Amino acid sequence: MPSSPGDCADTTPRLLALSDLHVAFPENRRLIEDLRPGGSGDWLLLAGDVGELFDDIEWALRTLSRRFSTVIWTPGNHELWTHPRDPVTTRGEQRYQCLVELCRELGIATPEDPYLVWHGPGGPVTIVPLFLLYDYSFQPDGVHGKEEGLKLAYEAGIVCSDEVMLHPDPYDSREAWCEARIALTERRLAELDPAYPVIFVNHYPLVREPTRVLRYQTFAQWCGTTRTHDWHVRCNAMTVVYGHLHIPRVTWQDGVRFVEVSVGYPREWEQRPSRPDVPAPGVPRQILPTPAAEVMPHAGSRT
Ligand SMILES: [Fe+2]
Ligand SMILES: [Fe+2]
């Protein structure tokens, strides 16, 4: 059984984060069954891909909402799929709104709610869950535009299932939905209290750099948008929490910590060698207080 925050005697309130739970896999479901907070003051950030089927998502969100004093969720692409085996057949924006409604019933905060402020150790900091999607602007070097990028992806056989199951209704395309989400979010970001730094929680990494390690660069087009490349600087971000890539790690961009918090698929985490800088599978990443090893080593550092 993996260790969990519940094994820790320290009850200092912590801001924790996890993504890509993919609870349809029984192995992953067991990780969530075992997951406990370290104390009653811990918050949990969920950066998407909890699951695919509505019932699975509801089970995971309900389970975690009962254990953590505060849970903040933002959707991944998988929650937004209209899966052929899901009795819930809503599509696109309507499916997203159903998920937001579920979160409200469970007391979970979403990108549609007022932004919460963490006043625990390392705070105060505004927690900003983002729902932005992607717009095919992350293309391999030398590839120009969605049409060319998709052609390459189909030729290589590396195509995200979103193309079949993530419907953009009522928008004409996923990139049009992304455009609308960015416009809506920009208006809300303009109202942020500038006195507080920000922690962004987004399914995608906000900047292109973390996708450079993907084995198949054609897949990056389903991993974000260049439109958010400077949000971490513009909004005084302390940390960007993201998932989707299934490559848990910490990198730095313009002095801002970017933390990938995925669990991933069993075939991925079962083979992942244990590393001191990556929590055991299913153990949330501590965001605040900032772990000593993740304090910015010196200004301007990049990895
Ligand atoms: Fe995922
Ligand atoms: Fe994803």
H and E string: EHEHEHEEHHHEHEEEHE
Low-confidence stretches: 1-9, 299-303
**Secondary-structure class:** alpha/beta
- Strand fraction: 5-15%
Task: Please describe the structure with a list of short key phrases separated by commas or semicolons.
binds fe (ii) ion, 303 residues, four-stranded mixed β-sheet, alpha/beta
What is the element layout, followed by pairings?
Elements: E1 15-18, H1 26-34, E2 43-46, H2 54-67, E3 70-73, H3 92-106, E4 116-118, E5 125-129, H4 145-156, H5 162-165, H6 174-189, E6 198-201, H7 231-234, E7 237-242, E8 249-253, E9 256-260, H8 266-269, E10 285-288
Parallel strand pairs: 1-2, 2-3, 5-6, 6-7, 7-9
Antiparallel strand pairs: 1-10, 4-5, 8-9
Bound molecules: fe (ii) ion (2 copies).
Brief rundown of the structure:
The chain has 303 residues and is an alpha/beta fold. Helix content is 26%, strand content 15%.
Protein architecture, described:
With 303 residues, the protein is α/β, with parallel strands linked by helices. The chain has eight helices and ten strands. The chain has helices at 26-34, 54-67, 92-106, 145-156, 162-165, 174-189, 231-234, 266-269, and strands at 15-18, 43-46, 70-73, 116-118, 125-129, 198-201, 237-242, 249-253, 256-260, 285-288. The chain has a six-stranded mixed sheet. It has a four-stranded mixed sheet with strand order 3-2-1-10, with no helix packed on it. Helix 2 (54-67) links the parallel strand 2 and strand 3 (70-73). Helix 2 runs parallel beside helix 3 (92-106). The protein is globular. Residues 1-9 and 299-303 have low confidence and may be disordered. Bound molecules: fe (ii) ion (2 copies). Residues 49, 76-78, 203, 244 line the site of one fe (ii) ion. One fe (ii) ion binds next to loops.
